[in-house]
Amino acid sequence: MRVAIAGAGAVGRSIAGELLENGHEVLLVDKAPTAISVERVPLAEWLLADACEITSLDEAALQRCNVVIAATGDDKVNLVVSLLAKTEYGVPRVVARVNNPKNEWLFNESWGVDVAVSTPRLMSALVEEAVSVGDLVRLMRFSQGDANLVELTLPPESALAGTRVGDVDWPDDTSLVTIIRGNRVLTPSRDDALEAGDELLFVAAPAREEQLEDLLSATRDAE
C-alpha cells in the first residue's frame, strides 16, 4: 500500500515509521525545509513542497496513493489537502488530523475526509476509557456512513455477561468488531460468550449509542 503523509512534523514522522514497519510505501510531504529530516525516517520518500498546491501533488503522484493522511498542525491545510486528494486524485481513503476540536464538524465527506482523528478528543477518550466501566466512550468518528468507533467495558453486574454474541438483540446500525479480553484480541463469532470486564469495540451510528449503552449496562436485577 502506498501512503502519502502531508506534514513531516513529529506526528507525520511517527505515523510514517509505523507504516514502514508494516511494509507499506510512505511519502512524506512538507513545505518547510527544516522539516525535511531524511535521517529520521530514512526508508520513506521525501518531498519538499506545499501539499496545498496541485503542482506539488502532481509531483507526489497522488493518484498512485491508496491512502492520504493530512497530518499537519494547521486544520485549514489538512482540509485543503483532504479535498484535493479526494476530488482531484480520487484517493480511496483520506485520513485527516483535527488540531482544534471546534473545527471537528468541518472534517466530513464534504471536505473529502473519510476518517477524522481529533488528538484532544482521542486523549480525552483514552482517559475516560481507562477509568470508566459501563460507560460508552467515543474513540473515533467516521465521516462516511455517519458512524463512530465506540468502546464499552462490560460491567460485572451486566445482564449480558455469559450471553453468546449471537443471542444478543443488538440495536440496528451497530456492529461488534472486537472483544479485548485481558491480553487477547478476539474477532467475535456468534458462539463467543461475553464476559464481565470485556472491552467491546463497536462501530455504531450516533443515534444508536444511547440504546447500545443501555443494553450493555442493564443489570440482571433489571431484567
TrEMBL record:
Q: Which PROSITE patterns match?
A: RCK_C, RCK_N
Q: Which InterPro entries match?
A: K_uptake_TrkA, NAD(P)-bd_dom_sf, RCK_C, RCK_C_sf, RCK_N, Trk_Ktr_HKT_K-transport
List keywords of the entry alphabetically.
Answer: Ion transport, NAD, Potassium, Potassium transport, Transport
Q: Per the database record, which ranges form the RCK N-terminal domain? A: 1-117
Using the record's annotation, list all stretches that form the RCK C-terminal domain: 137-218
Name any one Pfam family assigned in the record. Answer: TrkA_N
Q: What is this protein called?
A: Trk system potassium uptake protein TrkA
